[in-house]
TrEMBL record:
Pfam families: DUF4118, HATPase_c, HisKA, KdpD, Usp. This is histidine kinase. It comes from Streptomyces thinghirensis. It is a multi-pass membrane protein. One of its GO terms (molecular function) is kinase activity.
Length: 854
């Protein structure tokens, strides 16, 4: 038995009519003959709700004692033993009395669903777990009874029971919700107009999100390619600081307001070490963004604003979210900051949001804690201090005479400054220039290269030695910190690759895109060849103009084994980056092998499915074809027999049996041939513009007269189809509907136009098909339920769907309101995008082939 269906009536506040709507639905289902019981419904003394309980079967409640008081709860065991088709369970977020099997009522509902029982329930928006803080800030009341959002999101149907705040307050004032003694307090507190308006907005927005999900599913199922809305792609710039979580949550809320919004969090690591991040905090933020449905990206870039904008434009982002700078006011002397630069250079196509947070202007910490290789700006300032600084100092000391000892110390301080700013070479230049200027201008005899006092020679020697020592120490420290930064970046990237392996991510293109992002390249490709002299082929590529002929044509060539190479174009990578690139290349090879193994497994499954189809075909030939042949043989033998004198009535009956058997054979053989054509992919429709009312009436020739009714308006637009395939599809659909319709009930064939499409509906009033079997009835050799003998081999609907998809249409099954099954054939109207009229379309699609052979 399959899992039951869950339908939820969602309201913004108590009293909007959720329970009333649920009971009304129960009465409608009961009138249709559905086995429906009231498992637990609380009417709260509301007379109109209580009246609706009459006429419905109610399962007795279970009584539980708690703290000296007697309570009634849902008797889960009794409902499971009763095993109805539909059970009504009110107040999904209710907390059960201690002693019940489950702590929460939604857990009881999960057990009913697992037992195959459909459940209709109710819940208010304030009881959703994720909205607890928001509801408390609006109403001032913390909801103690909550239900996980995922439980409600998994519902098969969610119906919003809506009411304006004014109408709800009137209902409250009339005493239709609470007892009269509680009305004034409720109207003055929880049921204030502002509270109700805010709760209503929450409910509408939450349901709107579900509508977006259903819309995307519908567009996918019906192959709607026209854009019906815009997609927001939001990039969050992370620094690894504590404000990242706030930015991610803000981006997630913005994405939820748009149709199909997507969040991409990116951390840009600079090789010059001028940015830092806590690995622990980055790991927490990575987990947070993935939990919220986004993706995390780690990118290397020398210029953070430029790298961030390049990434955003590369992923076609619409918005960028950045946090307000953590720099203190005096630090703006060194530049406007990342946020201001990104906002200035983003252009009109990108919106930049600067989000405030608790860490604004609290500082980023000392530069020593960040340490890494010296940047370009520091090197420039180092050379300026090393070459220009001694000259300026000499001019100053010529104006102010401080003595040789003080002069040497000042020149030494300037050399140390040059070493701290620019490293070894600017410090050496400062020491050389400073020693020469000291000797010429301040060491007796002045304005001469010679030195008269030996002590001055010692002082200059010590000066040069100290300068060289300090410069060497600074340079070594810079190289060590640079190595540490590189190793940290490598460890993060390798951790990402390991995570991919553990999560089983197998997209080669996604991995190549990650390589391109990480190293800032223009394109990436994975090349392979069968032998040493065989030509190279491209297994996967991303970006513009990747090298696909030889790895040697690329800027970076990373071999993977003997016959595979990862090729990158854009710039030449330093040797220290190739170690990480080698890890990416090895992972790419693994991903490629995994993809091919999966393709082999798919082919093996296809072969197994083909064997199953052939086995079923043999069974059909041996049984369904043998039966009409046996009838024809018996009738012919009887007519040719000389031992019996047949009357005219008997002869007519025998001849009628021969004709019916021949018709059945013709129908079965036709379906078998059509299915073989579909499975071999040889159906090539000839698309023409025709009127639906020219073809559909001809499809009714195979059913008894009066068993089908046509309702096809003359104003329908023409459709682009293959007339023969459409007639055959409609004939199978109508014959199937007539076969299962009750005696005396005609089948309705109606057509209508909608947004560039024409829908033809074949409506019957038969027993219908449950939701879990609606796709299965389109599989070959499938007959739902107790199909009568001689009903065929179960190919009619499979052939109809295959022909519909071959013409670029769709065929789906829906429930008929009031009972029965409706087949919906969707066709492309003439003039809408698709195969050109008058030309042969492509052979029968792979989708149709999979549907037919599934």
């Amino acid at each position: 038995m399959g899992r039951g269906k869950l339908r939820i009536y969602l309201g913004a506040a108590p009293g909007v009519g959720k329970t009333y709507a649920m009971l009304s639905e129960a009465h409608r289902r009961t009138e249709r003959g559905t086995d429906c019981v009231v498992a637990f419904v609380e009417h709260h003394g509301r007379s109109r709700t209580e009246v609706l309980l009459h006429g419905l079967e109610q399962v007795p409640r279970r009584e539980l004692e708690h703290r000296g008081a007697l309570f009634t709860e849902l008797d889960l065991d009794a409902v499971l033993a009763r095993a109805p088709r539909v059970a009504l369970v009110d107040e999904l977020a209710h907390t059960n009395v201690p002693g019940a099997r489950n702590a929460k009522r939604w857990q009881d509902v999960e057990e009913l669903l697992a037992a195959g029982i459909d459940v209709v329930s109710t819940v208010n928006i304030q009881h959703l777990e994720s909205l607890g803080d928001v509801v408390e800030s609006i109403t001032g009341v913390r909801q103690q009874e909550t239900v996980p959002d995922e439980v409600v999101r998994r519902a098969d149907q969610i119906e919003l029971v809506d009411m304006s705040p004014q109408a709800l307050r009137r209902r409250m004032a009339h005493g239709n919700i609470y007892q009269p003694d509680k009305v004034d307090a409720a109207l003055s507190n929880y049921f204030r107009p502002g509270n109700l308006t805010a709760l209503r907005e929450l409910a509408l927005l939450w349901v709107a999100d579900r509508v977006d999900e259903y819309l995307q599913q519908y567009r996918s199922e019906h192959r709607v390619s026209k854009i019906w809305g815009s997609r927001e792609r939001i990039v969050v710039g992370l620094t690894g600081g504590p404000e990242g979580r706030t930015l991610i949550r803000r981006a997630a809320r913005l994405a939820e307001k748009g149709a199909g919004g997507e969040v991409l969090a990116v951390y840009i690591a600079r090789s010059d070490g001028l940015t830092s991040a806590s690995p622990k905090e980055l790991a927490v933020q990575r987990t947070l963004v993935e939990d919220l449905g986004g993706t995390f990206h780690h990118v290397l870039g020398e210029d953070i604003p430029a790298a961030l904008l390049d990434f955003a434009r590369g992923v076609n982002a619409t918005q960028i979210i950045l946090g307000s700078s953590r720099r203190k006011a005096w630090q703006y002397v060194f530049g406007p900051g990342v946020g201001a630069t990104v906002a200035r250079e983003s252009g009109p196509d990108l919106d930049v949001h600067i989000v405030t947070h608790e860490e604004v202007a609290k500082g980023r910490g000392l530069p020593v804690a960040r340490g890494a290789r010296l940047g370009r700006s520091r090197i420039v300032w180092g050379w300026f201090a090393g070459l220009g600084g001694p000259v300026l100092l000499t001019l100053l000391l010529n104006a102010v005479h401080l003595g040789l000892a003080n002069d040497v110390l000042l020149y030494l301080a300037l050399t140390v400054a040059a070493a701290l700013l620019g490293g070894l070479y600017p410090a050496l230049a400062s020491a050389a220039v400073g020693s020469l200027l000291l000797n010429w201008f301040f060491t007796p005899p002045v304005n001469r290269i010679t030195i008269a006092d030996p002590r001055n020679i010692l002082a200059l020697a010590i000066f040069v030695g100290v300068a060289l020592s300090v410069a060497s120490v600074v340079d070594v420290a810079a190289r060590r910190t640079h190595q540490a930064a590189r190793l940290r970046a490598e460890s993060e990237i390798l951790s990402f690759l390991a995570g991919n392996v553990l999560r089983g991510e197998t997209s080669l293109e996604a991995l190549l895109e990650r390589v391109r992002e990480t190293f800032g390249m223009e394109s990436a490709a994975l090349l392979e060849r069968e032998g040493d002299v065989a030509p190279w082929t491209c297994a996967g590529r991303v970006g513009a103009g990747p090298p696909v002929e030889r790895p040697e044509d690329a800027d970076v060539d990373m071999p993977v084994g003997d016959h595979m190479a990862l090729a990158l174009s854009g710039r030449v990578l330093p040797a220290e980056d190739r170690r990480v690139l080698a890890a990416f290349a090895a992972q790419a090879a693994v991903v490629l092998d995994r993809r091919r193994l999966r393709e082999e497994a798919d082919r093996a499954r296809a072969l197994a499915e083909g064997n199953r189809i052939r086995t079923a075909l043999l069974a059909a030939v041996s049984h369904d074809l043998r039966t009409p042949l046996a009838g024809i043989k018996a009738a012919v033998t009887s007519l040719r027999s000389d031992d019996v004198a047949w009357s005219e009535e008997d002869e007519a009956e025998l001849l009628e049996g021969i004709e019916e058997g021949a018709d059945r054979l013709d129908h079965l053989v036709g379906n078998l041939l059509d299915m073989s054509r579909l499975q071999t992919g040889t159906v090539t429709p000839l698309i023409r513009e025709i009127d639906v009312d020219e073809v559909v009436p001809m499809a009714l020739g195979g059913v008894p007269e009066g068993s089908a009714e046509l309702d096809i308006p003359e104003t329908l637009p023409m459709v682009a189809v293959d007339a023969g395939l459409l007639e055959r599809s409609m004939a199978n659909l109508v014959e199937n509907a007539v076969k299962y319709s009750p005696a005396g009930r005609t089948v309705l064939v109606a057509a209508s136009a909608l947004a560039g499409r024409v829908e033809v509906r074949v409506v019957d009033r038969g027993p219908g098909v449950p939701d879990e079997a609606k796709d299965r009835i389109f599989e070959p050799f499938q007959r739902y339920g107790d199909a009568p003998r001689g009903a065929g081999v179960g190919l009619g609907l499979a052939v109809a769907r295959g022909f519909a998809e071959a013409m670029g249409g769709t065929l789906n099954a829906e429930d008929t309101p009031g009972g029965g099954l409706t087949m919906v054939l969707t066709l492309r109207a003439a003039g809408s995008p698709g195969p050109a009229a008058g030309h042969s379309a492509r052979p029968y699609s792979a989708t149709a082939e999979r549907q037919a052979a599934r």
